[in-house]
Model the fold of this input.
Amino acid sequence: MPNKDEIVLEENNQLKRTMTFFPALSTVMGTVIGGGVFFKAASVTQSTGSASLTLISWFLGGIISICAGLTAAELSAAIPETGGMVRYIERAYGKLWSFLLGWALIIIYFPANVAALSIIFGTQFKNLFGLSNSVIVPIAILVGGSIMLINFLGARASGIFQSITLVCKLIPLALIVIFGLLRQGEVDVSLFPVTAGPQVSGFFPALGAGLLATMFAYDGWIHVGNISGELKNPERDLPRSIAGGLFGVMLIYLLVNFVYLKSLPIESLAGNENAAMDVSKQIFGDFGGKIVTIGILISVYGAINGYTMTGMRIPYTMGLDKQLPYSNQLAKLNRNKVPFIAGLFELAVAVVMMLLGGFDILTDMLVFVIWIFYTLVFFAVIKLRKTEPDLPRPYKVPLYPFVPIVSIIGGIFILSMTLVNQLSLVIIGLGLTALGIPFYLYATRKKTRK
Done:
């Protein structure tokens, strides 16, 4: 006769297996769409110098993300454990590499996302009310701190807030696309031939830099495989929801950027952090542009909440495993069962990043570091097929090994182009990641002594 825990587990599993295709599709799109679609047009157009190469960069970024999501989902379904990617890396490569991933998430990925999006918020807030540049960082710090306070109220409060902002993020996108496409364009957008702009140095370096910039907007696909445990039919609906959802995201990104390009000359978009606001003013006028900008601010605020809510759980989990200095403190919960010290630590790292770097610097650094581990995940799918052929796989990546190989090639291309174009950021990112090695050795030695 099953015990109480087994009955509860069975009931939970039955509850999770209620998701059908369309809710899964919505989950995928809601996970990936964030603030990058509004603000990466500036760096993509600056990198490519042409409308054609800009749209190709967004298209290739989508194709790589679709292949990446389909590939990583095999491990999500086969290893449905708390920790996600950390567990896949540990299974394939051992504890050191999984620790370094956790360390990179704590020191770079989550704080850099919070910092970059907070700077975006501060910049757009400044522009909306005509304030000086000196207020951007103070507003960014205030935004990061206020969201942390919301999260300290408990998972339910932060979850409700996230649901509200999820709807808000789709409204400005829909308005920009629908009215932007219906409106007579100010600029003739030429899609062919696909060439780099005359002011950039070479086609492939321009494509690499543009593709790297799009990766921040597409980031989040690694989490879409987590819905496998909620699907009634994961073998059928998981690949459909991932491919369909990411294709939908890619289509939205292409349409939004097409509207940008037909509304303003590329010279006005390149390096212009206010591109979304300027395009909104072109389409809706000053008042309508401000309304859309407020919607964008709410969207960005919600995106920061998502990274804050999930980010503080990583140092908390590693603290429970005694993997970090001051683990006992990092593992403490407040009365609302929130890891508040871990949250304050992540906020402190994010504030330092706000003070030191701008939006593009932060996002390029986090994309490089996280894509090292993404590429390792793609290799892990092939590796575990050989070393653990009997591992239950409720879902297998379609067109194997073609789709994983496309993911790997895409990952290597992104990393190579970053090495060529952003060497200083590569050194900083690798250095911060390598700083975790002494902490890993210390924690390992401490456990061995016990």
